[in-house]
Amino acid sequence: MASEITITIIGAGPAGLTAAIVLRKQGFPVKVFEMSSDVGHRLNGDFQGLENWSSEKDITELLKDIGIEMNFFCVPYYEGTIYTPEMRPAEIKSERPIFYLVKRGAMPGTLDMGLKEQALSLGIEILFNHRLDKFDGSAIVGTGPKGADAVAVGITFTTAMKDQAIVVLDDNIAPKGYAYLLVNQGYGTMVTVLYREYRREKEYFENMMQFFENNINPDIRDAKRFRCYGNFFIRDSQIQHNKLYVGETAGFQDCLWGFGMRYAILSGYLAAKSFIQGLDYDMLWKKELKPMLETSLINRFFFERFGHAGYRYLAKRFAEGDPCGFLRKHYNYSFFKHLLLPIAKRRYESRVKDLSCNHENCTCVWCRCGERACP
User: Fold this and answer.
1) Dihedral sign (CA 64, 70, 73, 75)
2) What pLDDT is attached to residue 356?
3) Which of 47, 116, 170, 183 has a CA positioned 20 to 30 A from the CA of residue 3?
4) What distance in Å separates the CA atoms of residue 214 and residue 198, rounded to the nearest whole number?
5) What pLDDT digit, counting tens, does each position of 222-234 carry?
6) In what order do the strands lie in the sheet with 99-103?
7) How far apart are CA 357 and CA 360, in angstroms?
8) What is the pLDDT of residues 16-45, one digit of tens each?
9) Cα–Cα distance, 280 to 271 (Å, whole number)
10) Burial (0-12, 13-18, 19+ Cβ within 10 Å), 324
11) 72 CB burial (10 A radius; 0-12, 13-18, 19+)
């Protein structure tokens, strides 16, 4: 049953806007507060991948099922190339899309603008340039990452190159991470994603540029450099004083490679579902998201320890047959793999200890009060 009380949503990212759209379609009054002047303010028109391997159902069908329309640039990619040290490039092909290419930022055609247009078409009020530092009552909070567990440094550009997807696994270019080149219809993104040694980002960026220059001689025009970051952690509860935390504010991210859009959108949907059906939000996300979050932490534990030999193994397995099936197996719960979860948790340390102010009578949203519970 729809409520007469307006539900406050703080943050107009994919998680917050998904929650707003789902709630409004069920008749709930919604108001969204966004501290920036528009959606996608952290992003730069760069290409990102909406992963399509962690579930049997195609991600575009899943989005339609939860009420999200495909009114944004979204192109399936069935193949690509993986480079690893001391090995010939591995060509990857799949019968189903490995991922969908989407664009992010505050320009036409992006995922962010598409969600904004859907929200506005439903009559949802979005208050831009409104930073809600203090708030009493129930709310959904999706204010984005608060720390850098991975840093991405790259460029967007125009080009005459053919449409393609290239991934590079090499610690000399992206320590414990990866670099990629994505091109579609004359527009490209080239990025190195670092999970270590952030202070050397300029050096690794130059290494990436030199690698692509040596191997594919890319056509790059009107390059614009950008930098962004991602955040991962697992907390026992995502409800603090009637505030439901979603997206990267809740640490919902793929710890292995940072494919977080699926987690953000699903967490927004689950937060909305908790209001619509009167269900416990912690119960919902722990059932739908926690197994994959924990598995991604274990995957990162393995990835960081096997180095270049492990990267070559992965490239060979991806090229052998069904890359989506191989990834699905390793992205979902495994009893034997989860025996290593306590070790993986001990070895992993997020840059964010606690994003929520748990002290008595706290109403702070952005954790700016400086209380002892907010290190």
Assistant:
1) positive
2) 43
3) 116
4) 24
5) 999 999 999 999 9
6) 47-51, 99-103, 74-77
7) 9
8) 999 999 999 999 999 999 999 999 988 989
9) 9
10) buried
11) buried
- Residues 179 and 173: beta-carbon distance below 8 Å: yes
For residues 80 and 66, what is the distance between their CA atoms, to the nearest angstrom? 29
Instruction: pLDDT band for 63, please (50, 70, 90 cuts).
Output: very high
Give yes or no for residue 272 having a pLDDT over 90.
Answer: yes
In the chain, count H helices and then E strands. 9, 16
Q: What domains lie within the chain, and their CATH numbers?
A: 7-41+108-146+232-347 (3.50.50.60), 150-230 (3.30.9.10)
- Find the mean pLDDT for residues 94-100: 97
Report H helices in 5-78.
Answer: 14-25, 59-65
Rounded Cα distance between 132 and 320, Å, is: 51
Model pLDDT, residue 321:
85
Nearest to 365 by CA among 36, 142, 145: 142
pLDDT at 367 over 90: no
Q: Give the residue among 116, 127, 34, 128 at the shortest CA–CA distance from 72.
A: 116
Helix (H) or strand (E) holding 230: strand 221-230
Distance CA 49, CA 262 (A): 10
* Cβ–Cβ under 8 Å, residues 122 and 22: no
CA 356/CA 350 separation, integer angstroms: 15
